[in-house]
Amino acid sequence: MTEKIVVSGVSVDTRHWIGGRRVASAETFTDSSPIDGQPIGEIARGGPPEAAAAVAAARDAFPSWAATPRAERARILHAIADGVDKRVEELAIVETTDNGALLRSHRHGVMPRVAHNFRFFADWLLRLDHEDFDTRGHRNHVSWDPAGPCVLITPWNAPLMLATWKVAPALAAGNTVVLKPAEWSPLTASLLADIAAEAGLPAGVFNVVQGYGAEVGDALTSHPDVRRISFTGSVPTASRIAASAAANLTPLSLELGGKSPLLVFADADLELAVDLAVEQYDNAGQVCLAGTRLLVEESVAEEFTRRFVARADALRQGDPRDEATDIGPNIHPRQLEKIDGFVRRAVDAGARAVIGGHRRDGQFYAPTLLTDVAQDSEVVQEEVFGPVLTLQTFADEDEAVRLANDTRFGLAATLATGDPERAERVTAALVAGTVWVNCFFVRDLQAPFGGSRLSGVGREGGTWSFDFYCDLKNTVTAP
Ligand code: NAD
């Protein structure tokens, strides 16, 4: 296999990163770009031997990294952040080539935030208290001990962002890591390995194993030396991982799919509501948090739809490297087929495509809005993960809440309303890990992030991340 490929002018190593060195596999898989469907390169295809080697490297490196003073761990994480900052342009173009998301968003938003992820968790670590309190003269001392080797498994829709939400707190906590990026977007994880090594992270503390989930994933998640598994991806994969982790009772964090509602009340600023609704097409609809179910109060539904269609029609779909593009391609022909299947079945069942409802040349799906959809229909209940929104109307607040909560998911909800008391009432009634009122996608790393119901198990962010990645210990000392 070719050890290094040049991706849009950037050299990327195609091998695994295990124990501080590059490791090839006999087999490879082809990584293609959603921009033109063309192959980018052959990537090492790991299996059980590579998984075992990576966990062994993480296990061997753990005692020394766990014993490294917090300030030193934080210093190295800051050095990684500096390395990311220096390579923002390279990371941005490689990520865009690999997963088709907008270059302007990678360049101005995502990659600078990847650097922020490392700085944030390094600084949070230094603020994490070792609590002390007395019980009948005995002193209780609570410490946040590193847990051990962690397996982190991530999807393709925001590869480096989602990976570093896990990698940064896991490393900060004193754990060692094996990261398995998605096979449709393997490249920036490899660049992160280079950056971490340059920043002085000791060998074996951070490892990257490439390959298909079914081949390398099970060997990672069933390994008895792994002390934490953090997974972002789909519900069916999460079930398999949970079953695989069960033998060793390995603690799990699961960030899964959604079918989030966006509620528009008649008292809302309608322009804002339309802005929020159009935003749901971001990343070609490949966003777990997307409010894909538009629920609009009857009295404003016609006007809302008119303005929405005008705005959606003006979106530019095309090459994600072009700064003027609003919507890029979808990740893979298989995903495109899946999206189209959802829409065709919905239309066959009586839905009307107000806009879109079809593919476009290349790997693109036209932004779609479906009306006349039944609450119990597949397109209302299942995650499409493409630029497909449904619109339903409601008569009053009770019906709005009922429709919003009538789902197996509970990741997020967005509401547009001009009435703060209504916002409070509705928010209290919604089942969702995050509720945005008159805004969308605002995320502070210190806030808990995660889903209820099938959308996940546990929360990431601030102290919640350390809660997961640490073994809390209480020491009671006699007077
Ligand atoms: P997926 O479940 O197919 O794959 C995710 C990862 O799991 C990939 O790295 C894959 O290789 C790996 N994997 C697959 N089978 C495995 C196995 N048996 N053992 C171990 N690993 C395995 O999901 P996807 O299609 O890549 O991602 C889309 C999904 O992710 C959507 O449902 C989306 O909503 C969800 N998502 C959730 C969040 C969140 O924070 N809640 C964020 C982004 C995406």
Automatic annotation (TrEMBL):
SUPFAM superfamilies xref list: ALDH-like (SSF53720)
Domain Aldehyde dehydrogenase: 26-474
Molecular-function GO terms, alphabetical: oxidoreductase activity, acting on the aldehyde or oxo group of donors, NAD or NADP as acceptor
Cross-referenced InterPro entries: Ald_DH/histidinol_DH, Ald_DH_C, Ald_DH_CS_CYS, Ald_DH_CS_GLU, Ald_DH_N, Aldehyde_DH_dom
Catalytic residue positions: 255
Pfam families named in the record: Aldedh (PF00171)
CDD domains: ALDH_F8_HMSADH (cd07093)
Protein keywords: Oxidoreductase
PANTHER family the record matches: ALDEHYDE DEHYDROGENASE-RELATED
Stated family: Belongs to the aldehyde dehydrogenase family.
Name listed for the protein in its UniProt record: 5-carboxymethyl-2-hydroxymuconate semialdehyde dehydrogenase
Gene: hpaE
